[in-house]
Design a protein that fits this description.
Layout (H helix, E strand, L loop, with lengths): L5 E9 L8 E6 L4 H5 L2 E8 L6 H16 L8 H24 L7 E9 L2 E7 L3 E6 L2 E4 L5 E3 L5 E3 L12 E6 L5 E5 L1 H4 L4 H10 L4 H14 L6 E10 L7 H6 L13 E2 L2 E9 L3 E8 L4 E8 L7 H16 L20 E4 L3 E3 H7 L5 H20 L2 E2 L8 E4 L4 E3 L6 E2 H4 L18 H4 L6 H17 L14 H5 L15 H10 L11 H9 L3 H4 L6 H4 L1 H25 L1
Antiparallel strand pairs: 1-12, 2-3, 3-4, 4-5, 5-10, 6-7, 6-11, 8-9, 11-12, 13-14, 14-15, 15-16, 16-17, 18-20, 19-22, 20-21
Helix pairs in contact: 2-3, 5-6, 10-13, 10-16, 13-15, 15-16
């Protein structure tokens, strides 16, 4: 039986004794790929009492969030998606509240969000609405009320949507268990119904959560609640299998293609020739018989036919490539043709790899190198905007087309944050390339955008100097001690034409400690194009490395003077 995330939900709201209901709530349980990549979203909001348009604020929080969250890229993590959406919503509330009412009390609301993705619950909370978890008859409060004491025993909200431009949201996540029950309430409910009573009502309605939600509201009303009342009850009915992927499930059972010879036809693609073969993949030039255009077909190696981790990674290449649309990244083609085998199709590029270009241009113009680095950085930005890391950037995985434009190719080591967060653990296989992969990646540590930047800096150094930046190979099994013994070789020792400020930017990007690097490739490119005063004088660098010619000239002069003095002393004696 197919295992997917499934829930039951009951929800109810009442204006109580107030003339209007300023609470708002909602949920979306998507189908298909969005259930896997975005999860289920449940949200509750309470327009702040006394604010001049709390009702509009609560409606904007719920409707805006539920709409915009599911419009964010599937490759983004829950955390990135939620914070992007909440930040935009908060800015809108704050700016409209201030411009219309000249008061931070204009459009203010609490907001509590529960995202259920794969086997994990993600909570986001600001204000005094609440989220509880009922597990094995124990009701636990998962959120903190953002209230501060005031005069005469009153309390006031000190954090909510729309109060201030800077948004400070409580976040937490934890593993789900089947039959977990989550309870979301506004203060008109939980201030008038004890935890014990809410627990009893839910347990008394195990198969009718709608009745449970209504009964909790009724009890709050009978206990003289003086506010609007809203309650949502969510039960986890089924959880997906660990490391489950809908896209992988749809394709993993398909067979690997056999070796393809010229003239063979694969799902409407006629093979012309094999372009490249490695231990992991084969690449073929083919003709799409429906459009009569040339394409590239990449197939997995039969060596890994029984390796589920390899198969998933191969399928992720196609998944990621279809979602990146950038002139500096190879285009993976989306086709309506039914596929009988595991493979994917890309555009056909005529040109050369960057490695071939480097071999043909051992002494390139510096401005040309900077332009190529800029194009690579722009392509990387397309990955990073989608919360993807390339993780195997090297000259062999970069092409120059016939117009001289860069294309980043080969997504075989790509890491997709939104998919990775659904895994119980990262796969142990290291897919990068020695000498180009960042040290933290080779050591199995956390990687981010500055890890891809390290690879870009190695390539830039190599284009300028025709050598690797540390004068030797990176250790195959790096340790902190081995990495500490690596010494960066200044460009001036290999290519005196490289300005010190360009070398300084490269050296910063190649810091062994990721915190010492630029955090974005665009920062690196800016300092390659514009002299940074920090690097105009290579402080702390010995004269022998800064300017070898001046060093040896000075040393020769000193030795000559010393010899003359010695001859003079000998003559006098």
């Amino acid at each position: 039986m197919k295992r997917i995330l499934e829930i039951s939900i009951g929800q109810f709201s009442d204006k109580g004794p107030k003339p209007d209901n300023e609470d708002f709530y909602g949920y979306i349980e998507p189908a298909g790929s969005q259930l896997e990549y975005k999860g289920i979203a449940v949200a509750i909001s309470d327009g702040m009492s006394g604010s001049e348009d709390g009702k509009q604020a609560s409606h904007a929080c719920i409707i805006g969030f539920l709409s915009d969250y599911f419009s964010t890229p599937e490759s983004w993590t829950v955390d990135t998606s939620v914070h992007k959406v909440l930040s935009a919503t908060n800015n809108w509330l704050y700016s409209n509240g201030h411009s219309q009412y000249q008061s931070a009390r204009g459009m203010v609301a609490t907001l509590s969000i529960l995202i259920l993705k794969s086997n994990t619950a993600h909570l986001y909370h600001i204000g005094d609405s609440r989220i509880y978890r009922l597990r094995e008859s124990h009701l636990e409060l998962l959120t903190n009320d953002h209230r501060v004491p005031g005069p005469r025993g009153q309390t006031f909200l000190n954090r909510a949507m729309g109060i201030e431009p800077h948004l400070n949201v409580d976040c937490r996540k934890f593993a789900l268990q089947k039959n977990d029950i989550f309870l979301l309430t506004t203060d008109g409910v939980h201030e008038f119904v004890a935890n014990k009573s809410m627990t009893a009502i839910i347990l008394d309605h195990p198969e009718d959560l709608q009745s449970a939600a209504e009964a909790i509201i009724d009890l709050a009303v009978s206990n003289d609640s003086n506010d609007n009342l809203t309650c949502q009850v969510v039960r986890i009915d089924n959880l997906p299998a660990p490391d489950n992927s809908e896209f992988a499930k749809q394709n993993a059972n398909k067979p690997f293609p056999p070796p393809l010879d010229p003239g063979m036809v694969l799902d409407g693609y006629r093979i012309e020739k094999e372009i490249h073969a490695s231990r992991r993949t084969q690449i073929y030039l083919a003709i799409d018989t429906h459009t009569d255009t040339r394409v590239i077909i990449k197939t997995p190696s039969v060596n890994y036919e029984d390796d589920p981790v390899y198969i998933e990674q191969f399928l992720n290449e196609e998944w990621a490539g279809r979602r990146i649309n950038d002139p500096y990244v190879l285009q993976v083609l989306d086709t309506d043709k039914p596929k009988k085998w595991i493979y994917y199709v890309t555009e056909f590029l005529q040109g050369q790899t960057l490695r071939e270009w480097m071999d043909r241009h051992p002494d390139p113009d510096i401005s040309t190198v900077i332009e190529l680095a800029r194009q690579i950085a722009t392509g990387l930005r397309a990955f990073h905007r989608m919360e993807m890391l390339h993780q195997d950037l090297k000259p062999e995985n970069i092409m120059l087309d016939q117009q001289g434009r860069i294309r980043i190719i080969d997504f075989g080591s790509i890491k997709i944050a939104g998919i990775a967060e659904t895994r119980q653990r990262d796969h142990d296989t290291i897919l990068g390339t020695l000498n180009y992969s960042a040290p933290e990646y080779l050591m199995g540590q956390r990687c981010d955008a500055c890890s891809d930047l390290f690879s870009l800096a190695v390539i830039t150094y190599e284009m300028l100097n025709g050598a690797l930046p540390f004068g030797q190979d990176m250790p195959e099994k790096p340790t902190h001690a081995k990495l500490a013994r690596l010494n960066y070789v200044p460009s001036i020792q290999l290519n005196p034409m490289v300005p010190t400020w360009i070398d300084g930017a490269i050296r910063k990007s190649l810091s062994i400690n990721p915190e010492g690097r630029y955090q974005e490739p665009s920062e690196f490119i800016h300092d390659l194009q514009h002299p940074n005063s920090m690097f105009l004088v290579p402080r702390g660098l010995p004269l022998a490395q800064r300017n070898p010619l001046a060093f040896w000239q000075g040393l020769t002069a000193l030795l000559t003077i010393g010899n003359l003095v010695l001859l003079y002393l000998l003559a006098r004696s």
